[in-house]
Write a structure and sequence with these properties.
Number of helices: 13
Structural class: alpha+beta
Distance between the termini: 20 Å
Shape: elongated
Radius of gyration: 27 Å
Largest sheet: 4 strands, antiparallel
Strand order of the largest sheet: 6-5-7-8
């Protein structure tokens, strides 16, 4: 748990630090003095002044901040009821609106550049991805509730192979899931292989109001071949081994992992397992205890490993920034979906849940291998970085995008902004941000409470 929190904090800190570093470098380039640049928040545990800037390491390891000269000028102008913000050499509000726009843009743009470079490095090195085949199972065939899913309406059947979606090849289930989850309410054209024949079907994933993602009502077809057995688990005690293929449980035929899940839902007192090992049929027995919340079989299923091709540096950079742009587009679609009736308490995440997700994903990766752990960490960091880029450019007062709108207005106005106008504008933004903080914090608390 502590490792997950540390990894999550580290991921969020990296992207916030990159953001503030962008503001810092742009301010210095524009001749705006930076009074303090801190790694972390709160009380400084280390500080050293170099030139006109005090560099700090603060006690709370969450991002950092960049304090520019003249930020207090607005408050002083309001208190003295002046008609304009006092001009001071090297101060932020004394710089031209164009320079202030440049400095405001630099933070989010730094996040985008950083994310693109991280993704480019991943594509340059190449990586392994664990997945399952592109064969599917209908959720309606195994769910207890008689739900009609989009997959049923489309005419899909259990055992079908989805070989392409909208002309894009889908060689494994991860590729199918990625397209479906990002295509809520979008009409998709599927090429489906069934009994050695190819069919063209139309699927429209429905919107999952708890997550904002698209869902079709399918599972991956996972063959009931054991990939690994946890030492000391119930399966280990029963003598099951990696490579065993489960044929029947309690006399019921097992074709795939969902069959096993369905049998487990009935909570049988004993699991009589018939399995194939090295061409011979063997039998094992497991006594179940479903009153024990920690009861589980202790097996994982055999999966496929998909190797991404290693790209040259130019291909990697191109693909990295293409992925970054696609993620921005998905973020815009996600924002639109917030006004489509999604459950905001579940679909919107705040810092607490982001830290939890980042830590969980990274820790899970490290459990598989060091390489997978670093891959998971940097993939998540790039995603958060792009999200920060997108959110900060929204025209909301108090965010970078809102500040840019204010400075553009000043350019067209051709005169300095009044302190009162700036103050009121900032207060509107602060109110909106507080509402968002309240919403995301409530959502995070409910999530952690299991609701």
């Amino acid at each position: 748990m502590i490792l997950k929190i540390v990894l999550g904090l580290l991921a969020l800190s990296v992207v916030v630090f990159i953001h503030e570093l962008g503001h810092f470098l742009a301010a210095r380039f524009s001749g705006i003095e930076v009074e303090a640049f801190s790694l972390g928040w709160g009380k400084a545990i280390f500080k050293k002044k170099i030139g006109k800037t005090e560099y700090r390491i603060s006690i709370l390891p969450l991002g950092g901040y960049c304090k520019m000269k003249g930020e207090h000028a607005l408050v002083e102008a309001l208190e003295s009821k002046e008609k304009s913000i006092p001009q001071e050499e090297g101060a932020f509000y004394s710089a031209s609106p164009f320079k202030r726009i440049f400095v405001s843009l630099a933070g989010p743009v730094s996040n985008f550049i950083f994310a693109g470079l991280v993704l480019a490095a991943i594509f340059l090195i190449g990586y392994e991805e664990t997945t399952f085949e592109n064969r599917i199972i209908l959720a309606s065939a195994y769910d207890r509730e008689s739900t009609v899913w989009p997959a049923d309406t489309a005419g899909l059947q259990s055992g079908d192979r989805i070989v392409s979606i909208d002309g894009k090849k889908t060689e494994n289930y991860n590729q199918i899931a990625e397209i479906l989850t990002t295509s809520a309410r979008k009409k998709l054209s599927l090429d489906v292989e069934r009994d050695n024949k190819l069919y063209r079907l139309t699927l429209i994933p429905e919107l999952d109001k708890d997550t904002g993602a698209g869902k079709a009502g399918i599972y991956p077809w996972i063959n009931p071949t054991i990939g690994s057995v946890e030492p000391g688990s119930n399966a280990d005690k029963a003598g099951l081994k990696a490579g065993d293929q489960i044929i029947t449980i309690n006399g019921l035929e097992v074709l795939h992992s969902i069959d096993i899940s369905k049998i487990m839902l009935e909570k049988p007192p004993v699991l009589k397992i018939e399995h194939l090992r090295d061409g011979s049929t063997k039998n094992s027995e497991i006594k179940t205890d479903f009153d024990d919340e920690n009861f589980r079989l202790g097996i994982t299923y055999e999966y496929s490993i998909f190797h991404t091709p290693k790209l040259n540096i130019f291909q990697a950079i191109g693909k990295g920034y293409t992925e970054a742009v696609n993620t921005v587009i998905l973020s815009a679609k996600g924002l639109k979906l917030l006004f489509s009736g999604v459950n905001l308490n579940k679909a919107v995440s705040g810092p607490i849940r982001i830290i939890n997700f980042a830590g969980e994903v990274t820790a899970s990766g490290f459990e598989q291998s060091i390489g997978k752990g670093f891959l998971s960490f940097f993939q998540f960091v790039s995603f958060i970085s792009i999200a920060l880029f997108f959110m900060n450019l929204l025209p909301i007062p108090a965010l970078d995008g809102g500040q840019i709108v204010l400075f553009i207005f000043e350019i067209f106005k051709k005169s300095p902004l009044s302190p009162t106008s700036v103050y009121r504008y900032q207060m509107v933004g602060t109110f909106i941000i507080l509402l968002l903080v309240l919403l995301t914090t409530t959502s995070d608390i409910l999530f952690l409470a299991g609701k």
